[in-house]
Amino acid sequence: MKNLDDLISYSISKVIYPDKRKKLANNILICGGGSQLPGMIEEIEDRLIDRISHYDPSIERTEVIDTESRDIDPIATTWVGASVIPKLDIMKEYWIRRNKYLGNIIKKTRKPTAKNDIVIT
Known about the structure:
The chain has 121 residues and is mostly helical.
């Protein structure tokens, strides 16, 4: 089983664009009961800077957002995140639009109906 800091740093390292990697490394939010353990936020930050700098030396700091210091209700944190993320401009490029989704389904499920039909996949 992998440590939480290993999983977070590995996920961030897989982001293609360096500027987005930095942004993610400085906006980590840990949710759930474990995030309320004393010293958890500081420990994760300390471990992450070592791990992330291994993948990307240009990242010099990480920030794990402490929900208590930001007056965020830990019970509602995931709901707040799920309601905010779709509205961010940065996320628009990651949405799969209906036409693209349906177009991919049609391409993959369409079978040639005649001898001269060409199927593009």
